[in-house]
Amino acid sequence: MSTSFDHTVVPLDQLLAEFGEQVVTPDDPRYDEMRAVYPGQFDRRPAVIVRPKDAAQVARVVSIARENGCELAVRGGGHSNAAHGVIDGGLVLDLRDMRELDIDVEGRTAWVQGGMSAGEYTHAVVAHGLVTGFGDTGSVGLGGLTTGGGVGYLVRKHGLTIDDLLAAEVVTADGQILHTDADTHPDLFWAIRGGGGNFGVVTRLKFRLHELESIYGGILILPATAETIEAFVTQAEAAPEELSTIANIMPAPPMPFLAPEHHGSLVIMAMMVFAGPQEDGERVLAPFRAIAAPLADMVQQMPYSGVYPPEDPGFHPVASSLTMFADRIDRQAAETIVKRLTSSTASMAATQLRVLGGAMARVPVDATAFAHRKSRIMVNLAAIYESPQDAPVHDAWVAEFADELRQSDHGAYVNFLADEGEERIRAAYPGATWDRLRAVKTTYDPTNFFHLNQNIPPLP
């Protein structure tokens, strides 16, 4: 979509005068580290990065960018598959210094700034025996994760992250700071629960907290064949809602806890999270352990924060990927997965399966802008490789793989979309959801100022 923004109009002197050391320019020794994002294929060079500390500063940066006609990218954790958090030649509003957290232990709620990561928040609240469900990676920023939906290790027990969002503070395109909840600006509150970053900068979020002293969870590795893949999904669908699973089907990396003879063989590397006591968890996981002799079994009683182990900050994979939903993973689909993974020429090829349902599915489809409550299984396909020049080969592999797996559910999860065009964005927001989101966009961002995202344009 064309815009009136001019990449060259960046008011550097004004930003330096108002924000001082919070401004990072290309000659700053911090610049390369701060512009790096998780996906390794992007090397974008913004004209300036500003790291605000609160909503008032965010509002000021937004106003300066708008008044000067420069493009503004909003960055949380930097995990966007399309690298929407950075922009060549423009202004990056980097929220990562906004990590204040206020926990109301008695009231079972927490207010948190949008730049805090899922891992930081989780480790803080777990100290009180409390949790909010986020995604599968601890280094993701809470603002971006939440506005896209949030599908993680408690999705079947407590639903999406947005199902525990009680209120938010949002800086809109005109520089206003709005409080929004079910009763105040309810149209905006509906839209930010799944509609992405289209409506403003989410600077604070109020989450519901659930009591959870510990989980029975960890990595379970099984050999991957068409039979074991089908059986794993069948068991995950039949399991009680306390169990959420994320199964990565892939060649086994050379991990120290896996016998060398299994390195490189196709495995189901599953993260199992049972939100309850070990005795019940062992009973629920028994059918999974019976599928085949586990190659590694690291499932144990642990605090929920254990789902977010330390990460390598230097890991920036170059990948082709695609997100989709499936109605079922039957023997035919499982055979397709095995065939495709063993035919890939990538350094690492993987299929991720997340059985959904439970609490997520009980929320009405139109209650939030996340329109896939009835989807049964989320599927993510990925090929990781060394050189960005090899992208066409692996993009084609992913696309052909998806065509073979595609069934009746043509939806997409916005948080996992890459730069795939309007048709795929419409798949994330099908039918009436798209029309309603466009109406909200027209109210809060009629000039499409916040367009560096999976963009929902305003009405003409």
Describe, in short, the structure shown:
The chain has helices at residues 12-19, 31-35, 55-68, 118-126, 142-148, 155-158, 186-192, 226-238, 278-289, 331-343, 359-362, 391-405, 422-428, 432-444, and strands spanning 23-24, 48-50, 72-75, 91-94, 101-104, 109-113, 130-131, 165-171, 177-181, 201-208, 210-211, 215-223, 243-251, 266-274, 296-297, 300-302, 318-326, 348-355, 377-385.
Number of helices: 14
Distance between the termini: 13 Å
Number of distinct beta strands: 19
Uncertain runs: 1-5
Class computed from helices, strands and strand pairing: alpha+beta
The gyration radius over C-alpha positions equals: 22 Å
Shape: globular
**How much helix is in the residues?**
25-40%
Sheet-strand content, in percent, reads: 15-25%
On the 0 to 100 scale, the average pLDDT is 96
The main β sheet shows up as:
8 strands, antiparallel
Structure description:
With 460 residues, the protein is of the alpha+beta class. It is built from 14 helices and 19 strands. Strands 12, 13, 14, 15, 16, 17, 18 and 19 form an eight-stranded antiparallel β-sheet that branches. Strands 5-6-10-8-9 form a five-stranded antiparallel β-sheet. Helix 8 (226-238) crosses helix 10 (331-343) and helix 10 runs antiparallel to helix 12 (391-405). The protein is globular.
